[in-house]
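Support case: user asked for a sample of complex input and structure output to validate their parser. Sending the pair below.
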Amino acid sequence: MKTLLLCEKPSAARRIAMALDDEGHPLEKKLGIVPYYESRRNGKILIIVPAIGHLYTVTPKIRNRDVYPVFDFEWVPRHEAERGAKEIKKWIDAISKLSADAEDFILATDYDIEGATLGYMILKYACGGKEDRAKRMKFSTLTTSELRSSYDKLLDSIEFPMIEAGICRHMLDAIYGINLSRALTVAAKKWSGRYSTISTGRVQGPTLKFLVDREKEINCFVPLPFWRINAKVEIAGHLFTIEFEKKVIKSQKEAAEIAEACEGKKGKIANIEVREFRQKPPVPFDLGTLQREAYSLFKYTPRRTADIAERLYLEALISYPRTSSQKLPKSINYRSILESLIRDSRYKELAGILLNEKDLVPNEGRKDDPAHPAIYPTGNLPERKLSVSEMRLWDLIVRRFMATFGEPAVKQSVKVSIDVNGYIFYLKGRRVLKEGWITFYRPFIRVEDIILPPIKEGQIVEIKDLSIEMDFTKPPARYNPSSLLKRMEDEGIGTKATRAEIIDTLYTRGYISGDRAVVSELGLDVIDILDKYCPEVISVEFTRELEESMEKIQDGNEKLENVLERAVNKLTPVLLRLKKSEKQIGEELSLAIRESRMNQRIIGDCPACGTGKLIILRSRKTGKRFLGCTSFFKHSCNVSFPLPQKGKVTAAGKVCSECGFPMIRLKLKGKRPLVICVNPNCPGKERKDSR
Amino acid sequence: MTCKICGKRSKSEFCERHSEAYKSLLRMYDEWKKAMDISWRDYLKEIKENPYTGKWAKEVAEYLLTSEMKDSSR
């Protein structure tokens, strides 16, 4: 009697097979290109077979990309709908074959919407309708002990409400994404005769709108002048910077009057305010907070962090990372995790401190997730040498876990008011009195003390270096991948599993570029057009409403059919409106695409004429690409530079520090991007060559 | 009609983007006057050179300065 265990990925299958085999040595087999394992557990034969993520996808029945609206969708094997997914057929065939001999079925994919949905589709289509019979393994880590216990306590069925919500999400994304993207792409194609994919979607549209709104604010920004009074105070032979009571003085005249009144005057200590406060430990990581922390500490994009965390999970080093929870239930056994971590010399002392505590109580956050706890280290130590980024992230997760059990830090702040001829300046000091949790979270937290010398009220002090500084208000900061992710979370759009991917898509579509997401002309125009013709599809409220409906499906309080029907009813008039204005939209989009393509080809200012721009061109004779000046077409500059013929060339956005020529970024497949000066005679290159 | 700055289709002298930037310039001039003694022309010059000025606002300031110069030379 054989039991088929269906996993999400090959590495998870291997770990599950090893954990469940009585001897810990399952048989490794292959069916074509598909690896699978045979484990023996309590006399039973377990066939453990992985998928490679989703094997089935939603696609419109009408495949012609020029047709919209389309509302008739179906689930099909991915290789039938996507180019470059040929190998999927081999996986489906292998799973079908293995399932033919099986009597029992267990779903052991990730316990979340995506894991449940992809497993359901395989059980239904590849295994021939086994979804109702399948049992479910629920686990949050891939540790041997948890996998065995999860196998011993199998859930009676797979999670149907969660699957229904998952199907609904896929259907809605397809209905919105495919129809709206087709409408825009077809409009542009009809007008220009050229095909370029212009995509938008249920979450992508509102996310791009956040960026566009901010971009417009920045582009229209007019700075305002203001003034500051800077000064220092000398106490016990040391100089300290002091702040004027008003941080911002809006009038030049007022600033001059204050400076004049204080110039050359002594100060008198008017008041000393000492405050002690407790700072609670940080809360455990959910995926969003981990992504933000990793961005702020290591500049990893949310997508990169999610990918690294996934690898650490598959190595059984951390718990399941796609979680919204900031809670650590007692059942994970804090002590045994710390007792395992103590084996690593870096954590020996810190884990030891915690283990000496009588009670271990984490400082939990408010967010919860019914499927998984917050991200925590399993206590396992790496079995292989981790890469730098993997090690950094694992270390961050371990230290954060320990820090949540720490005591509050006690800090002291001192605010000294200094009266200078009737005007008040502040001298501020701060120090940590008791480190508490900070000890566990170093080096990921920096604490800088400013310790003041003994001061008494009424003491007369010397004021030095008094000056007026003119400054300007600054435009709002651009979003970066981390702050954009936070905004999406706050607005309740997308899911923890999809947000990073949506941000990535905005980059690949050319709507935004750079670390400080600068919106391109195309991105601005796509939102302007959607705003003009169908503002509802970029409205946060509408997307949020759909997210709430999907949550209701998951809770069993809403039906899939009703949500889909409402969505189609809302989308139909929008698409008709887009169709009606196809010509106008096509013209506007085509101009934006042309401009965007042109901008992508511009590398920088021409160093020869100073008025033209260096642009990527192709020789009519040889077909080779090179850099030429735009002024060539006005017959005023004929400068040109050779370019590498392989790889993707884009502007690096900076000039060479050696010769001042613009620099290019060259990306060859599978290699790190190179930043190169376009000047073949650059002194920097010559030096390098002579070495 | 096309925008005098970027050539995009527009209902008035400027396209929507540059109109917004122009409105912002006008609104902020009142604040600048409260902050310091400054003429419209000097204000435009300051705005044009300021590193914090937005791209579209800078383009409008530059356009206004150039068109003012053209007007005064006539």
